């Protein structure tokens, strides 16, 4: 988690959130924010849309769950970039964001390698 982002309206000390990445079961990227002071989850930045045509470093951004000033603060860090594309799911439209931070990308790659190895081990044991 080492990326701290300060945004308005957060009631934590030190102010801000940290960024964490995980994987959904379909290997799409999951991005979460945690309060910087106690580590509790603040918000999930991503929504998993199965079969969405996303690159390995992209995710469907849950823009309605995060205050607009926090969205701008996240983009300002350089850790993320708005691709300008959107994806529709049901009645909602989700902007597609790309992870631009090499450390976060490295974490995602490592998780995918671990997940692939675990899948291979499970298949061998059956």
TrEMBL record:
Top-rank taxon: Bacteria
Protein name listed in UniProt: Uncharacterized protein
Organism of derivation: Ralstonia pickettii (Burkholderia pickettii)
């Amino acid at each position: 988690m080492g990326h701290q982002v300060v945004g308005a309206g957060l009631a934590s000390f030190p102010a801000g959130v940290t960024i964490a990445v995980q994987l959904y079961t379909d290997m799409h990227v999951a991005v979460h924010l945690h309060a910087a002071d106690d580590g509790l989850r603040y918000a999930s930045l991503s929504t998993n849309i199965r079969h969405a045509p996303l690159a390995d470093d992209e995710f469907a951004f849950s823009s309605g769950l995060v205050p607009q000033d926090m969205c701008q603060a996240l983009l300002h860090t350089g850790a993320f970039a708005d691709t300008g594309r959107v994806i529709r799911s049901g009645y909602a439209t989700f902007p597609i964001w790309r992870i631009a931070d090499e450390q976060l990308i490295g974490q995602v790659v490592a998780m995918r390698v671990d997940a692939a190895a675990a899948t291979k081990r499970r298949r061998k044991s059956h």
